[in-house]
Write a structure and sequence with these properties.
- The strands form 2 sheets. Strands 1-2 form a two-stranded antiparallel ribbon.
- With 156 residues, the chain is of the alpha+beta class.
- It contains 6 helices and 4 strands; from the N terminus they run E-E-E-E-H-H-H-H-H-H.
- Strand 3 and strand 4 form a beta hairpin.
- Helix 1 (36-56) runs parallel beside helix 3 (89-107) and helix 5 packs across helix 6.
- It is globular, with a radius of gyration of 21 Å.
- Helices cover 56% and strands 13% of the residues.
C-alpha cells in the first residue's frame, strides 16, 4: 500500500506493508480480525507458567498455591475474555484445557478423572460460561446505569 502526503514544500510517497497481526492492550488481532493468535498465545503462556508453578507446588501450602494459580493463570484467562464470545469450539477447548490443568494441579486429582466435579468444587465456571457471564454482567450494569459510560450511552 502506498501512502502519499504533502509536507511543507515537498510531496512524499511512503510504502506501507500490512502486518499479519497487531497487538493492542495485550490482545493480538490478526488480519482477519480473529482472536486465534491471541488464544494460542494465552494458551502457550499459561501452560508455561503452570509448568513453573508445578515445580513450586510441593513447597507451597494449598492456599498459597491457589493464590499463585489465580494470579498467574486465572487472571490471564479472564483478561479480555469478552472478546472470545462466539469463539470456535476448538479455540474454546484450548482455553478450557488450560483451566482444567490448573484445577488438576491445584487439587491433585488424577488427569483421567472428569474435571467438571472438580471445577464445581472449586467454584470455577468453565471458560465458555465465564465468557457468557462476563457479557451478561456488563449488559446488566449498562442497562442499570452502573457500567462504563461508553456502554451506558449506547442504551440511553
Amino acid at each position: 500500500m502506498v501512502l502519499s502526503f504533502c509536507y511543507g514544500f515537498g510531496f512524499y510517497e511512503v510504502q506501507l506493508t500490512p502486518l499479519p497481526s497487531v497487538r493492542s492492550l495485550g490482545v493480538i488481532l490478526d488480519d482477519s480480525i480473529s482472536v486465534e493468535a491471541q488464544v494460542t498465545k494465552v494458551g502457550k503462556l499459561t501452560f508455561f507458567h503452570l509448568c513453573q508453578v508445578r515445580h513450586l507446588a510441593p513447597y507451597l501450602f494449598q492456599s498459597d498455591l491457589a493464590t499463585v494459580i489465580h494470579a498467574v493463570v486465572t487472571s490471564r484467562l479472564d483478561y479480555c475474555n469478552s472478546l472470545y464470545m462466539g469463539l470456535l469450539l476448538r479455540l474454546t477447548q484450548k482455553l478450557q484445557l488450560v483451566q482444567s490443568a490448573a484445577a488438576w494441579l491445584l487439587t491433585g486429582t488424577p488427569w483421567r478423572q472428569h474435571i467438571t466435579p472438580v471445577l464445581r468444587e472449586l467454584h470455577w465456571l468453565p471458560i465458555e460460561h465465564q465468557i457468557k457471564f462476563k457479557i451478561l454482567v456488563l449488559t446488566c450494569k449498562a442497562l442499570n446505569s452502573l457500567g462504563p459510560m461508553y456502554l451506558q450511552d449506547r442504551f440511553f
